[in-house]
Amino acid sequence: MTKHARNPILLLEDERATGALIVQLLAGARIANPVEWLGTGTEAIDYLDRAEAGAVSLPVLCVLDLSLPDVIRELDLGYQLLPLELG
Known about the structure:
- By secondary structure, the protein is α/β, with parallel strands linked by helices.
- It has one domain (9-77): Response regulator (Rossmann fold, 3-Layer(aba) Sandwich).
- 33% of the residues lie in helices and 14% in strands.
- It has helices at residues 16-28, 41-52, 71-74; strands spanning 9-12, 35-38, 61-64.
- The longest helix has 13 residues, at 16-28.
- The radius of gyration is 13 Å and the shape is globular.
């Protein structure tokens, strides 16, 4: 088991069906990390602030729905977005 095997994957998704599919795909890929599923950008920023303070585990991966209404506003707080290029 690697050092971060139990750190969570932060999933930011307000659509129930899409979030459930992502969780199912992660489980199917045998990814053992727990998923911390949040529905708003504000909740995600709060979680990341608590992680920086050591109150919760820092996520190993953040999966973001960038079309959430409050995500663009909240992401302007100094967190860096890294684009994911497939293919």
